[in-house]
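Bit of a strange request maybe. I'm writing a small parser for structure token strings and I need a real example to test against, not something I typed by hand. Could someone generate the tokens for this chain?
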Amino acid sequence: MIEIDADHPIFAREFTIFTGEMSRACALGVDAAFMRRTGLIFYGLSRVGKTYCIRALKSELSKFMPRTYVTQIEVVNRERQASNNIMLQLAIEEQCAAFVKGSVLQRLNATIEKIELRCKERNCNHWVLLLDEFQRLRNYDLYQLADILNVLERRGIKMTVISFAMPEVLRRRDEFRQKDERQIVSRFMSDLIEFHGCRLNDLKTILHAYDVTSEYPVSSGVSFTRGLTPLSYLRGFRLESYCDLFWRVLNAHSLGAYKNNVPLEHVFISLNYILRFCAKNDGVEHALTERQFQDAVKMSRLKEFTMENGDKIE
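Reply from user aminoacidic:
Good idea to test on real output. This should exercise your parser:
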């Protein structure tokens, strides 16, 4: 048995694996930014990996469009208010400290000037705003974003808003259409793409990464599986060989809209329990049975979560 490092990336959740869905979303997001489109929204159920994807997308944008100015914000939910005050969040993020307590117009002007300055510093004319939890925005917030877009456009700067949201964003779009508020729909909500959770091919990608392409410690050349189960690994133990069994158990515990759409968070939690078991039994027990997978998935409380949150997307 080896001593388990609590700072290991799989337990600290400080690693990124590009599943097929994440790769697809990042490619579409980079393309939307490259083509200077105004709005793109990815929507999906809770815990399917949207927040991880927005971080990965920001990293990909820095690689493929290094001069483009990018701002990332998670929309704050403020109850009993007509607005979540996206203008205030932007002013804080862009470090417009002198205008945080000022009027909306002061914050608007200060934020636009700061964005314009950042673009000039990068010798670019493009600002990409990445929004997490887009569905939390109220009508007033969206019109503020439209105001920013209009002013920046007059100053020769293109604005692209790429957002991630819960499925209720579909109802929000319908509400705007019914009220004939086409300006908001056409600018920010005309292109909605469903973001899926883990599927069988994604699970294969994840397990292969653990076995082969991951690395810890850095520059060691040692994969996650090898580092945690060195003796069993030498005997041929690989997580990827259990992919079909693991998938059957995961999907059996997934209900409603999470069928064949397993939340990534629970996949990784279950995998952590499995690897912890393997590490404790390294060299002793290197053939896993369905019982170990059942126990791990139960410990992740996947069934309880999907029972509560697995309503179908309309």
